[in-house]
Each structure stands twice: as C-alpha cells, then as structure tokens.
Design a protein that fits this description.
The chain folds into two domains: 30 residues; 190 residues, Immunoglobulin-like. With 225 residues, the protein is mainly beta. The longest helix is centred in the first third of the chain and has 27 residues. The strands form three sheets. Strands 4-3-2-6-11-7-8 form a seven-stranded mixed sheet, with no helix packed on it. The chain has a four-stranded mixed sheet with strand order 1-5-13-12, with no helix packed on it. A two-stranded antiparallel sheet has the order 9-10. The protein has one helix and 13 strands. The chain is globular, with a radius of gyration of 21 Å. Bound molecules: copper (II) ion. The site of copper (II) ion has 6 residues, from loops.
C-alpha cells in the first residue's frame, strides 16, 4: 500500500473515531427526559394530584416492547417522562393505574406498603397494607422512593384478560388496577424513585433495559421550594 493510501486510511479511521467520541459525548450530555411541572397546577399549599400509569409495553419510540411508566401532566396529556417537579412540604395524592400483569415477588418485603399515609394503599377502593404476591395475580411493579421510605406494590391484572393494554397511553377500555396513596413531600431536593421488581424481560436478571434507562421504570421527584 502506498504512503498516500495508508495516510488516507489512517485519516478516515481517525475521523470515524473522533465522530464516535463526539457522538457519545453529545448523547451522554443531552437530557433524556423532559421535566413535568406540577408546582403551579394548584394554589400554593394545596395537594397535588399526580396520576401515572404502568404499561406492559409502551408501543412506540425506540423500545416499543419495553415496560414503562407514563405520567399525566396538569393539562391532562399522558407523557413518557419520569421526572416530576413537585412543591416541597405538600401532600401528593398519587393515583397509579396499573395496566400490566404480575408475578410472585422475589422479595416479599416489596409487597409491603410503606412510607405513605397510614401505610396503606387503596387498591380498587379497598385499603391494604400488604399484598401477598403468591396469591391472585401477583405484583407487576413497585413505586418506591428509597430516600423517603416509600414502597407501593402495584398488583397485577389478570394476564389472561382479553383486553390487556399494549400501547401507551392506556385507557379505560383496558383491564387495570387502580392504586391510590398519598404522602407529603420533604424539603427541596432531587429524590430518585424506581420500580424494584426486575421487570426488564430479556435482560440480565431482569434489571437491564427499561430498569436501567430513564423514562421507563425509574425517575426523579424534583422537590422545589
Ligand atoms: Cu417495573
């Protein structure tokens, strides 16, 4: 190979390497998610009503088969964002529409309701403090905020139902369980929340994919003054 050809090959490979580094840096620095603002949806001090849903497969975007959370913004639109800005020292009335099926938990402690008012969740209108995931339809996901001691098991829907939602956002034509809890936000800070059920099917131990990328099975409560 002539010197010119080798130089050309080297420069092409160098350019490709530089382009790859630039791409990785830009991708890493670009925020993956928008922030949904709940701070001005109600008068200061009034409780914030926060509605989310969990779906077995989102049905759109780069990973249509991934399990995900969705959130309803104050305008009523369902968004694929898991960072929610909420006011400090304020009661959050959280409604979770669970559209996914469940299974027995690997750790039964995840079936315990903790860190929310009364340590109970209202599951389809009935208060429970613990769900035995070896019974019924099991548990599909949890909503947990470790720094606040919050753990809420999301009981699964019947996996044999004919109307399981496979395209977010899901509506009332699909089978679902409704879980309600309330809690009071602490002082300002960024508190991570996540699902603890290894629900990333097809990934190592179920903890990759949607479990380890933002906007699917985890996010942040941005608590602001
Ligand atoms: Cu999950």
């Amino acid at each position: 190979m002539s010197f010119g050809a080798r130089l050309t090959t080297f420069l092409v490979m160098l350019a490709a390497a530089v382009a790859l580094v630039v791409y990785v840096v830009i991708t890493y620095l670009t925020p993956q998610s928008g922030v949904v603002d709940f701070t001005s949806a109600q008068p200061a001090g009034a409780p914030v009503n926060l509605s989310v849903q969990t779906v077995g497969s989102i049905g759109f975007g780069p990973h249509p088969t991934w399990v995900t959370y969705m959130v309803q913004n104050p305008g009523g639109q369902w968004l694929h964002d898991t960072t929610w800005e909420v006011p400090a020292h304020t009661r959050i009335n959280l409604t979770i529409h669970q559209f996914d099926s469940g299974s027995p938990l690997r750790n039964q402690n995840w079936g315990r309701v903790q860190g929310v008012a009364g340590n109970v969740e209202i599951l389809n209108g009935k208060p429970i403090s613990f769900y035995d995931s070896n019974s019924g339809n099991g548990v599909g996901h949890t909503f947990a905020v470790p720094a606040l001691g919050i753990n809420v098991p999301l009981v699964g829907v019947n996996s044999n139902a004919s109307n399981i939602c496979s395209q977010a956002p899901c509506g009332s034509d699909s089978v679902s369980n409704t879980i309600k809890v309330s809690f009071v936000t602490p002082g300002p800070g960024e508190y991570s929340w996540q699902c603890f059920v290894p629900c990333g099917l097809g990934y190592l131990y179920g903890n990759g994919g949607p479990m380890s990328n933002s906007n699917y099975m985890g996010g942040f409560l941005d608590v602001v003054a």
